[in-house]
Known about the structure:
Number of strands: 16
Order of helices and strands: EHEHEHEEEEHEEEEEEHEHEEHHH
Strand content: 15-25%
Strand order of the largest sheet: 4-3-2-1-11-12
Shape: elongated
Number of helices: 9
CATH superfamily of the largest domain: Metallo-dependent phosphatases
Radius of gyration: 26 Å
CATH architecture of the largest domain: 4-Layer Sandwich
CATH class of the largest domain: Alpha Beta
Amino acid sequence: xxxxxxxxxxxxxxxxxxxxxxxxxxxxxxxxxxxxxxxxxxxxxxxxxxxxxxxxxxxxxxxxxxxxxxxxxxxxxxxxxxxxxxxxxxxxxxxxxxxxxxxxxxxxxxxxxxxxxxxxxxxxxxxxxxxxxxxxxxxxxxxxxxxxxxxxxxxxxxxxxxxxxxxxxxxxxxxxxxxxxxxxxxxxxxxxxxxxxxxxxxxxxxxxxxxxxxxxxxxxxxxxxxxxxxxxxxxxxxxxxxxxxxxxxxxxxxxxxxxxxxxxxxxxxxxxxxxxxxxxxxxxxxxxxxxxxxxxxxxxxxxxxxxxxxxxxxxxxxxxxxxxxxxxxxxxxxxxxxxxxxxxxxxxxxxxxxxxxxxxxxxxxxxxxx
Length: 370
């Protein structure tokens, strides 16, 4: 029985520039620590090796510290064999990177910078390293090369199959590559979510989430192969530390906004390691929108990051809302003008959203003064 742990797309050193404060550094640290979690998952599953199918580094020129710390984490897991494949972000074009890795590689690391098979405990790993950021051709065509008789054949590659490219690149790897090349399993990287293309071909996804695109929990794949020709058993193994959650909620007039929001959120203990993105749609009265804004303010600091987009939340007209702003005078006239603009179908969506947001703010200020 051959057991390996399949992972990819660690993107060590990723800057996470969209966030402020301490969060980018925390997310980078979580990605580094995912190497230790991969080692723990491999041991628990009885795997002999960890296969990293490309984009271990986010760029072709990671900092010296990022390289050194990654190699040290691999060195510390000396009971496991690690196989490291160049991906499109850290392709073979990064000659200085791979020269340094080869020079400093610990004894338990196999660097797959060419197509020569790598022997790992009864299996032959057949690599297809990325030659450049966008090679534009099927690099897996070399995976049909012969190996020792009786060896389990495992391909290791990085790139797009059908329409599953993370960066919108044209698909170049055929979905039946494993069968065409006589592989028992093909371990792919590039797509950051876990994806089964066929019984012998999987994307592992990244072991630590890095966007709201993929809903499933970040994980690696424990792959068990009974012998040559056997269909592999593939089991997802959770490895993520931070959770990225995105929710789209259609709010309706008459709902309790706080209760509706709470139903979308994880429990309090999980929030510190959760990035949460809310898109609110539907319609609410000014009072309900104000209550939703207050409910968001009550919980947002519990999270690693929290964002609520209310720009698509329509306004449900209620004359009592305007009365609460003012029954007459300049404030009432301003509120009526904003309400007319918010409901004016001749205005574009952005202008209506600005009017709704301004009316909501006016309502909030009037409520505080009252």
